[in-house]
Amino acid sequence: MDRTLLHADLDCFYAAVEALDDPSLRGRPLVVGGAPDARGVVASCSYEARRHGVRSAMPMSEALRRCPQAVRRPPRFERYHALSRQVFAILGDFSPEVEPLSLDEAFLDVTGSERLLGPGEAIARAIRARVQAEAGLTISVGVAACRHVAKIASDLCKPDGLLVVPREPAALAAFLAPLPIERLPGVGPVTGPRLRALGFATLGALAAAPPDEVEARLGPGGLAWRAMAAGLEPTGAGRAGRRSRSLSHETTFARDLRDREALRRVVGQLSDEVGARARAEGFSGRTVQVKVRWPDFRTITRSRTLPEPTQATEAIFRTAWGLVDEHVAPGAAVRLVGVALQQEGPERPAQRLLFEEGPGGAPLAATAGDPGRLDRAMDAIRARLGPEAIRRARDLDPDAPLARAWED
Ligand SMILES: [Mg+2]
After folding, report:
1. Which of 163, 225, 300, 305 lies 20 to 30 A from 8 at CA?
2. Could you give the 3-state DSSP secondary structure of residue 349?
3. What's the gap in Å between 307 CA and the centre of ligand 1?
4. Is 326 a catalytic site residue?
5. What domains, with CATH codes, occur in the chain?
């Protein structure tokens, strides 16, 4: 069935609230976040500040270096929560299916509302007018036949915009094809350069590549990227004739890696990326697979099937690290490591798993449930600030400059 999805996203929400409550701030470069001497970071910034190169998640000291005339305000989350509730109440008047991504951003499935309220575009106009009139804020809305295209649209039309992406295949392809690959939700500063290096600089380049080639270069998860680049739901597309779906991430090291702790951190990061994508795409998998390539290019894959499907980072990590720890001898050099989550297990699940224990003695079965609060909190932050915005401390190299805690 043809669906109509809206992605509604308040424009620089925290900064807009500060300017709403203090009109003297309007039209000025404004940053919301912690103090620079307390290693604060930018939680939100006005478009005037963005013109000077200020971005969300940037250290406050850097933001004020780039834009010394900016006014800084500490965040007032209670106020933001109150306005967020007001906006979500408005959204709820337009569809029973509102899926919040964070305080200021939501998907709305308005397929069932269109008969009553008119086409998606009319609903988007009405939402924008009511949010402006009742909350005093501008909200940008993208309209499309699936989630990620609606999000691309709202990102493109910001601020105070409305963009409807046609659903006819030719017009949809013409809209998506020229967009830089970084426009694809989930493609961050790590994945973007990797996709570019493989020749996929635009959505069109990735969408047009033969599936076999995409899978060979990007792994099985590459087919989901390809489907998204073509404007198709990643869960439904590229799956015809395939028994099982799989999400995977892998890393090739610039220099062969012997450091066990560093290897564990990378497995942690990859597990986290796989878990986050699984949750974003509503995908659960029963089998965790790891791939290890040695300096001489010999490659092994090892997998373990869980008693029940999961999308929790912790369950993926414990299983993946258990496999890597088991199969990589201490001190051995590793060229590449990968983590995958697969939908189906083998025909006969590995029964032995039920009696195995995870690291630390916890039964693996106990770790294989729903994603926890930490996963959900991290997903919400990433929805706002991008997939690279937050990491578990476990996955950070204590010596790398990246090891900075997110603080508001
Ligand atoms: Mg926003």
Report:
1. 225
2. coil
3. 39
4. no
5. 1-167 (3.30.70.270), 178-242 (1.10.150.20), 244-408 (3.30.1490.100)
Ligand 1 geometric centre to CA of 332 (Å): 46
Q: CA 16, CA 286: separation in Å to the nearest integer? A: 43
Give the number of other CB atoms < 10 A from CB of residue 133.
Answer: 9
Please check whether residue 301 is in contact with residue 255, taking contact to mean a CB–CB distance below 8 angstroms. Answer: no
Closest CA to 18 of 4, 9, 31: 31
CB-proximal residues (5 Å) to ion ligand 1: 9-10, 104
Please provide the size of the chain in residues: 408
Query: What's the gap in Å between 11 CA and the centre of ligand 1?
Result: 5
Q: Which residues contact 72 (CB under 8 A, 6 or more apart)?
A: 30, 31, 32, 33, 35, 36, 60, 64
φ/ψ (deg, to 5) at 238: 65, 10
What's the token pair of residue 202? Answer: 């635009």
Question: What backbone phi and psi angles, to 5 degrees, belong to 150?
Answer: -60, -40
Q: What share of the chain is helix, strand, coil (3-state, %, to 5)?
A: 45, 20, 35
Contacts of 91 (CB under 8 A, 6+ apart): 8, 98, 106, 108, 127
Per residue in 106-125, pLDDT tens? 999 999 999 999 999 999 99
Q: Where are the alpha helices (DSSP H) in 114-259?
A: 114-117, 120-135, 147-157, 169-176, 191-197, 203-208, 211-218, 222-229
Residue type, position 102, single letter: S
Query: Of 105, 250, 273, 281, which one is the catalytic site residue?
Result: 105
pLDDT in tens, 139-151: 999 999 999 999 9
For 360-393, what is each residue's pLDDT tens digit? 333 333 333 456 778 888 888 877 776 667 777 7
Rounded distance from Cα 330 to ligand 1 centre (Å)? 46
